Amino acid sequence: MRKVILCLAVSFDGFIEGPNGEIDWIVFGEDGGSDLTAFVEEIDTVIYGRISYEMWGNPKITEESSDFEKNFYGKLFEMDRYVFSTTRHHFDGNGKAIGGDATELVTRLKTQPGKNIWLYGGASLITTFMNKGLVDEFRLAIMPSIIGEGKPLFKNVRNRTDLKLVRVEHSASGVLGVTYEAVK
Fold it and tell me: Reduced to 3 states, what is the DSSP secondary structure of residue 86?
């Protein structure tokens, strides 16, 4: 059965964005690019919240874009991409607007043949998935920055989720990669 994987960068103090939405604290070296390239080979579906899709889900790739961007986003553009939104019913690119219950869609997707599913975010969608017990695996790139305030990774999560450590990796740039499975 396919897994829903929450995969993202987080500051050492648990934020996914700074107080003004900034992500300039994210360290992105060659090792991070190769990790993301390997990760997209494991998935064929991406789930976004509206704001995350509008900000990062449909970037314009140009001749000046890096080889990594061309390769990474080129693969993402070919995947099934779902965007949860209560305010919009159409998105640029191939993002399919979903206004209904996450449980129904995820249950259906997990039973279909295919690769794993990336829960891209944002924060409110992550909370919804956590509260419904829909996340199977957590892959966090813990950045070597304490930013003090911003948007926390987990907020208003109502249910306890026990985790099993699967892998820990570190990079020369100080990024700590951790992978946990949800114990169900």
Answer: coil
> Residue 15: which H helix or E strand, with range?
strand 15-17
Cis-peptide, bond into residue 29, ω within 30° of zero:
no
User: How confident is the model at residue 68, as a pLDDT?
Assistant: 82
User: How many residues are recorded in the chain?
Assistant: 184
State how far the Cα of 33 lies from the Cα of 173, in Å rounded to an integer.
Answer: 12
Helix (H), strand (E), coil (C) string for 19-65? CCCCCCCCCCCHHHHHHHHHHHCCEEEEEEEHHHHHHHHCCCCCCCC
Predicted local confidence at residue 56, as pLDDT: 83
Question: Chain-centre distance of CA 23, in angstroms?
Answer: 14
Mean pLDDT of 8-35: 84
Stated pTM of the model: 0.91
User: Does an H or E element contain 176, and which?
Assistant: strand 176-182
> Which domains does the chain carry?
4-117+124-182 (3.40.430.10)
